# Entry
Amino acid sequence: MHELGITRSVVAICAENSGGAAVKRVTLEIGKLSAILPDAVRFCFDICAKGTVVEGASLEILEIAGQARCKSCGGTVTLAELVGRCPCGSNDLQIVAGEELKVKEMEV
Amino acid sequence: MCVTCGCSEADQVAVIDPDTGDQKIMSHTEAHAHGHSHTHDEDNSNKHEQHEHPQNHSHHSYAVSDSGSAAVMARSHSRTIELEKEILGKNQLIAERNRGWLKAKGILALNLVSSPGSGKTTLLEQTILALKSEFEIGVIEGDQETIHDAERIRATGCKAVQINTGTGCHLEADMLERGIKSLDPASKSLLFIENVGNLVCPALFDLGERAKVAILSVTEGEDKPLKYPHMFRASELMILNKIDLLPYVKFNVERCIAYAHEVNPKIEVLQVSATTGEGMSAWYEWLRKAESTVRT
# Structure
């Protein structure tokens, strides 16, 4: 349930940056290879937002697909999960996308 | 509410000295009162001394009280504020500060992670007994409740403090910072941080350690590296513990190691029994080697 703490941080970051204005929409970037479940964040969001300037805001989550660079052949590999292999056979992969955990923007 | 750890007023973390019973409760304000200008009032004016600035913005372009890191675009009735803020950014900031402090003191700090019951504390007890003539050793114990583990470590004659996370399922960088202050580890010492038994959440939170060491016992499933890839990917070393029990359990060592390498091709693997001492000398060698590179 680390999503609860994560969601609290999201709400707090928005509240700190809204200048006191009510927040209407929050957009997050969550990588598919991060250990964060978007549904769990959605579940926690309204509870965490209650009583703050973020209360009532809609939550938009952009899920970023996993992508890695193969250190053996230099090719680019799309990863559906953290563990994967390059078509060349190597599993020595450097993840270049999919680990994002970011508050991208908000509408006030 | 606190941005650093997401804690609320109700969440309390306790740093406990098992010798004196001295207990410090980290309220969420106190927990972060350590040099950065993090406050909990509504006034944002002084809060962002340490923030990172995205390129090409100026501080006075926008009429928003906290325009420090926010690019604001006016719309007809509402406006979008581009934040681009890492959700775990503040934890990372404190972790890097811990790392710098530890490096400056020449301390090798290792973050030990595992499921509950993998034998972390027994492994530590044996390690301390074997190496205490060679190194000064300090231990920071993380558990949700009780000071049992810190008491076990103290019984070996080594310095230990207990951090009780309450409902928290992992240690965070600010808790380590407080733990270090309470423990006051010596220069050029070894510092073991025994994280809360949990193979999920501690993978996400950098504490400022030199490396994570994952401990897996043969009484658990051999496919744990595949089931919890984040943790084994984040670790430099996997210690396979309780190998004295291999004759009694269904556990395929080769397959387990193959799974670990599938998740993390670079992970080193050591097979030990903390109870019988088998394989422990290789772990001590690993520690000596890691310690010798701390100051480089």
